[in-house]
């Protein structure tokens, strides 16, 4: 264990905490920008510190391909390599393997030059020591938090594959624990799988809790399932996971989802959404989204969000950004900056029914926000 | 006239000055990054201020296409639009039309070309160019000139030079904001000293706030290049700024400054950054090169910029050509490098150590003493002794 998790305040299930990691003392709930391959597209590390970023997520799969985990290790670890003095988290590589490589297989291509140098199949991960390799790469990369390799299936899939994946996830976490060479510097989190099936989720939670890991993630969500199923899985897991350890909902997400999950007792989130949507010309605002490409922006002299204190909103108009988006990378850069600032500030009607239901369970009275 | 130009120090022909413009008091010699279409690719205006940028050049042609000069005017001018509180300079639009549009045709009326938006025939006249630049609102605006490449020979050059003089009168007449924007004339005449001389004298007669030396940096040999610069700087007034358009390489800037020029612009530092090349005292460093893969040094150990203080060659190597961040970081460093060069030129002249600075610069770039002959010849005319740097 290489972290401390101290709850500083609560409201029913929601909690605010200090999560002290080797490189940085973070405050939760927190959002982690995704710096896929050793950089957040468009922002220098100075700017990331400026906007209050605490942890960045790196994708092990991408880093293993370029520049390779061995080189990162040789050069002193990812923190030093990318000049990020605060905290880092790496995923296991598993998700990208499934999402990036399955596509190649479906196209009929056996990808033989892959980093692990094996031929693989759709059911994947019959590779003898893939689990251990995932941890080894992460040990070399050196992040504060590393993720166990899980057998992740999309929640839109049904059938026995889900149960198989859940049990395999538990077996693999033991192999990850055994392979982990730096437990006093890097925190290995386990990932709860089990699809949308409460029975399977329960077995997985209990199995992981038995392993007494430093923290736990709720995986396999944010993949197309309906929102009503989504929040219920999060609610079930947060209710069952230990109070005194961080809970990380992977791949989340939209600001609304983060608020709901936090109300239900989750602490950490990651998503490419804010930066990816920036590259499509979309800004995050309290009302939802603002599409800077829209013709209405052409002479709009207001900032993206008049209530936002970020460098972009203090200095640039919608008209200017409109002029840049999709034509100059500067547009994406400025929108990425604003969107990450927005996510990191933590946003504190037509409220969707699933939100009302979730807030009900969370014990938060949102009647003043609902017109119905 | 909306500027003040005060020489603070000299060494022979070289001068360090304060150029006070409506939006900013600049120190020359200075380099202007090119912010083609209302932005310097990859850098926020905060970062531009951080690295000491004084003036940015905007391309009238590109801005007129997007977002249009009318919109910029409506929104309060380019300074406000792009959030740049310091100085701006716009060119006339003429060069891009000639260089970007194969079907451009130059007549006495102006430049006719096919609109890249809808293919319709359009005409950029001197009057129209000035009107557009009046709307954009830059501190310095450029007269529309008839620019021909120096690699061309024959009567076209003479025609272009005389037309440039006739057009500058039309620009002056069309200029609606002479108390806020400084209209510079551009010396043309190819590589012909007689034509250049006529043009200089014609422009000086018009008593403009400043003068540019145009038509160079287009492929001519370096020996011809420096001679034209030397001739023009010798003939242009002492008390007005001299701007060598499209320059350029650090070495060229040092030479031109020694010969008495004050202002420069070029896409080179930012464009070469996007190809993975960094500017360093020794010349260039190609970050794509395999040797960089585990090089933990900064791009330039002597450089104080944010990139050199925070990132290694290995890291940038990993990004270049694969992630826009590579270009961004290299653009930042390269512009810092050019602006630091400007500051060094200014301060070394003011502090009376200009020849030492030049020698030091040349020694780093040519450690074996193989300083190109054109540089030696130019420094001779500039009265700077660089024999200690030359092996021959």
**What amount of the residues of chain A lies in strands?**
15-25%
Mean pLDDT of chain A: 87
Which pair of chains has the greatest number of interface residues, and how are they split between the two chains?
Answer: A-B, 36 and 36 residues
- Coarse shape of chain A: globular
Give the spatial strand order of the biggest sheet of chain A: 4-11-10-9-8-7-6-5
Largest sheet of chain A: 8 strands, parallel
* SSE sequence of chain A, one letter per element: EEEEHEHHHEHHEHEHEHEHEHEEHHHH
Count the strands of chain A?
13
The radius of gyration computed from the alpha-carbon positions of chain A, rounded to a whole number of angstroms, is 21 Å
In DSSP terms (H or I, runs of 4 or more residues), the helix count of chain A works out at: 15
Structural class of the helix and strand makeup of chain A? alpha/beta
Q: Determine the fraction of residues in helical runs of chain A and give it as a percent range.
A: 40-55%
- End-to-end Cα distance of chain A, whole Å, is 47 Å
Runs of chain A with pLDDT <50, length 5+?
Answer: 103-126
Quaternary structure type: homodimer
């Amino acid at each position: 264990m290489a972290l401390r998790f101290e709850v500083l305040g609560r409201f029913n299930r929601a909690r605010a905490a200090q999560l002290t990691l080797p490189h940085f003392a973070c405050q939760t709930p927190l959002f982690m920008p995704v710096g896929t391959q050793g950089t957040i597209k468009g922002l220098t590390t100075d700017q990331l510190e400026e906007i209050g970023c605490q942890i960045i997520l790196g994708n092990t799969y991408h880093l293993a391909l370029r520049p390779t985990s061995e080189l990162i290790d040789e050069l002193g670890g990812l923190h030093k390599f990318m000049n990020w003095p605060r905290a880092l988290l790496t995923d296991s590589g598993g998700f990208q393997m499934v999402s990036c490589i399955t596509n190649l297989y479906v196209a009929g291509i056996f990808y033989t030059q892959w980093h692990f140098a094996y031929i693989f199949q759709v059911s994947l991960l019959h590779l003898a020591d893939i689990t251990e390799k995932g941890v080894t790469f992460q040990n070399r990369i050196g992040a504060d938090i590393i993720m166990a390799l899980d057998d992740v299936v999309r929640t839109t899939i049904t059938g026995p594959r889900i149960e198989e994946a859940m049990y395999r996830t538990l077996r693999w976490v033991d192999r990850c624990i055994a392979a982990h060479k730096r437990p006093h510097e890097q925190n290995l989190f386990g990932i709860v799988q089990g699809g949308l099936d409460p029975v399977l989720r329960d077995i997985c939670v209990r199995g992981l809790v038995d392993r007494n890991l430093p923290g736990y993630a709720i995986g396999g969500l944010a993949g197309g399932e309906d929102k009503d199923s989504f929040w219920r899985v999060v609610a079930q897991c947060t209710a069952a996971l230990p109070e005194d350890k961080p809970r990380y909902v992977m791949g989340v997400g939209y600001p609304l989802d983060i608020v709901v999950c936090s109300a239900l007792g989750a602490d950490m989130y990651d998503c490419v959404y804010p930066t990816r949507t920036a590259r499509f010309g979309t800004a995050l605002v309290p009302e939802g989204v603002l599409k800077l490409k829209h013709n209405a922006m052409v002479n709009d002299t207001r900032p993206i969000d008049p209530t936002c204190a970020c460098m972009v909103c203090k200095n640039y108009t919608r008209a200017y950004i409109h002029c840049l988006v999709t034509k100059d990378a500067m547009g994406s850069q400025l929108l990425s900056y604003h969107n990450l600032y927005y996510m990191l500030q933590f946003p504190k009607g037509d409220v969707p029914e699933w939100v009302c239901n979730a807030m009900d369970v969370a014990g938060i009275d949102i009647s003043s926000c609902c017109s119905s």
